[in-house]
Request: fold
Amino acid sequence: MASASAFIVPDCSSSSTAASRFIPLNKIRIRRVFQINYHPISAVRWGPKSSLLNININNRRLFSSMALTVASNAETIAKVIDGKSVAKHIKEEISTEITRMKEAIGVIPGLAVVLVGDRKDSATYVRNKKKACDDVGIKSYEIHLPEDSTEQEVLKYISEFNDDPSVHGILVQLPLPRHMNEENILSAVSIEKDVDGFHPLNIGRLAMRGREPMFVPCTPKGCIVLLYRYGVTIKGKRAVVIGRSNIVGMPAALLLQREDATVTIVHSRTKNPEEIVRQADIVISAAGQPNMVRGSWIKPGAVIIDVGINPVDDPESPRGYRLVGDVCYEEACQVASAITPVPGGVGPMTIAMLLSNTLSSAKRAHNFE
Ligand code: NDP
Reply:
């Protein structure tokens, strides 16, 4: 049972996990599993398994001039994995690279976005992607179709973008309206322009040994890039991915496996998830459950990548809510060796990886090194 010296968790009150699972802080021996040294990507040893990331993240030159400082809070133990800052630097590098390509061969990368329906969150995501494209010099094209459009209409636009040489990446904003077959639509995107990496062929290649997908899904790729950027060794480590969705959990697990981690996937039917998570050196959580992962679930010294973005009520916020991750940040900070915040962790990396994939696609299409 928790004693009076158990964690104080003001920010994790929205979790459904019983407080009796807390472990008093004085019972936890903090042992660093990882030495977390933040360094530029050029200093990272990309092993053979990393060639996949290397190809798709762009060449090393793109990342060679990075020099960031790690934000850390004196009152906590974990280092903050600052995705916002890493993403900003990656975007600057992409912008420089786009200028170089434009000057050398006159090509500007193009990204086409297909949005169907009037979901506010989807419209916001598309707006953010368009702005990010503008920031780095990618030309963006947008097709916004009404909710009651037919699948054929969506397929027609995808086909046009497939044939358009000025478009190097095509993104279909999910979720699609219920009457549409997502698989049909995602499969219609040319594998050479599938910058989201959701085409079954790209996912299949990601899963198979000895095969290379043309693109890796952006959010999982952002998670792995963050691990690399912070010098976290993946090879030989025990990793747990919470969530098995097609867009985050499953490809994240495949990527970790390609990087030679021993991977376990936890999902909604997993029994005793805390016991499994507690064995992990690296945790990637993408469950969409606010503050589900408590400090007591975490192996001391583990590295935590929190993908979850969950709104919870907050009367003190002007919006009436705030965003939290899947991991109880305050508790995890006292146990983990490094952790991504929410917001400001994985989120900004997702868009940076989309831009990176689009640039890679344009370079590949024009054979530009
Ligand atoms: P999905 O709802 O598609 O998948 C959630 C997964 O989590 C499922 O596999 C589900 O299991 C599992 N899960 C749900 N509840 C639990 C639980 N209590 N214990 C263990 N596993 C559980 O979500 P997404 O993958 O699309 O997104 C996950 C989170 O990541 C969301 O918060 C989303 O907002 C965020 N996100 C963030 C992005 C970013 O850029 N940072 C990008 C994309 C998503 P089962 O399969 O059994 O149902």
